[in-house]
Amino acid sequence: MKITIFGTGYVGLVTGTCLADVGHDVLCMDVDAEKITRLEAGEIPIYEPGLESMVKHNVGTGRLRFTTDPAEAVAFGVLQFIAVGTPPDEDGSADLQYVLAVADTIGEHMQEDKVIVDKSTVPVGTADKVLAQVQKRLASRGAEFDVEVCSNPEFLKEGAAIEDFTHGARIIVGTNSERVKRLMRECYAPYIRLQEKLMFMDVRAAELTKYAANAMLATKISFMNEIANLAERLGADVEQVRRGIGSDPRIGYHFIYPGCGYGGSCFPKDVQALERTARDVDYQAELLAAVESVNNRQKQTLFSKLANAFDGDLKGRTIALWGLSFKPNTDDMRDAPSRTLMEALWDAGATVQAYDPEAMKECRRLYGERDDLLLAGDRVQAVKGADALVICTEWKEFRSLDFAWLKSQLSMPVIVDGRNLYDPEIVRDAGLMYYAVGRGDSL
Ligand code: UGA
């Protein structure tokens, strides 16, 4: 099957590569010529385990190709996937300019009937807007072709994107058209197990499903963070509470890990966008607003714990920071809790000595060269000469630690652990002060 993907960002590249890998002919289009040249050479702009070799392999077979030519892209695929970004507007709503620009391109160049597939995370009603935009463009050319738009939201997690694409919990397709259903079945047919998970529904329900899923997951996290903050004040250990409630299958163990707040390119933006959508239809989404504000507060807690440990004075201190990315197995620092912490530390006059297995380059790109940001070559270098250690991301290599060694390195025996990686008793037995999230007296 011939498939065009607009956008070679995270979603577009993973989708295009996975579809080529099962035998489809895929053409990915991007307006960024430099990116396309790099991709053609098998160089990928993001860190995602397994993706680079998969791109190289499929470029080698000729099934995965890239272009900057819109006419070629539109002519190529029966299915035209839109997988461009929907960054938040100033008011928190999703900015549809890139999605609508693709719709315009399709309307400008199409010479036969097309099916458009919305993969970008877009507010309810966007499929209608895309259709209207294409039709407007067709009318301006005096052309008449049949266009159908369906919604096929993605549920990929960064760091596990290929696995999520090939073994996802479901494929949602929003359409009432039999022709579109047939084509989408054909598209996903090579994934035998996924086929059973293909769920057809109305376009608007599909669009809302995406937001509802992310908002629900974000709610679970904010809920647990709220309980963690309570546990701290009540002298209870939230990790015991987590196990206690997770054992109820109605609650479950997934996504109830308290921490230093959720980050990334999806949860913060999607919760905000759904709240905004609610406002547009005169509904005040109180729970969503609370989920967001609990998260914003949670991102500040690491700094408060550190400030408390240093009696409110962090000026001139050097803080070792392990983990910059918003979660492990990615170099993505969008809305990462590490950023809130670093910025607060700098405001307080402290120096950050940071290490992350993947996100060092990204950190430099975001903050540039500055005297109060030292990027260390490894976790050991990061604590050398530091006053205290903070952990923001639960990378595997941080999970085991020689606490006696750590104590000998730090001027103040303080660990602030935003991911509850260690056994408080063991850390404290080594003579360290351990401030985790929601674990007894770790305020
Ligand atoms: C999220 C969803 O999990 C995907 O299903 C969805 O497709 C994707 O957004 C998207 O909309 O594109 P992602 O942002 O890659 O995926 O990362 P997650 O693994 O969900 O983690 C998000 C944040 O929540 C991280 O900062 C993580 O540390 C935090 N988190 C997660 C917790 O604090 N506690 C948990 O129990 C789980």
Automatic annotation (TrEMBL):
SUPFAM superfamilies: 6-phosphogluconate dehydrogenase C-terminal domain-like, NAD(P)-binding Rossmann-fold domains, UDP-glucose/GDP-mannose dehydrogenase C-terminal domain. Residues 320-424 form the UDP-glucose/GDP-mannose dehydrogenase C-terminal domain. Pathway: Nucleotide-sugar biosynthesis; UDP-alpha-D-glucuronate biosynthesis; UDP-alpha-D-glucuronate from UDP-alpha-D-glucose: step 1/1. Pfam families: UDPG_MGDP_dh, UDPG_MGDP_dh_C, UDPG_MGDP_dh_N. Substrate binds at residues 155-158, 210, 255-259, 263, 327. Its EC number is 1.1.1.22. NAD(+) binds at residues 30, 35, 86, 121, 158, 269, 334. One of its GO terms (biological process) is UDP-glucuronate biosynthetic process. SMART domains: UDPG_MGDP_dh_C (SM00984). Keywords: NAD, Oxidoreductase. The keyword NAD applies. The active site is at 266 (nucleophile). One of its GO terms (molecular function) is NAD binding. It catalyses: UDP-alpha-D-glucose + 2 NAD(+) + H2O = UDP-alpha-D-glucuronate + 2 NADH + 3 H(+). Belongs to the UDP-glucose/GDP-mannose dehydrogenase family. This is UDP-glucose 6-dehydrogenase.
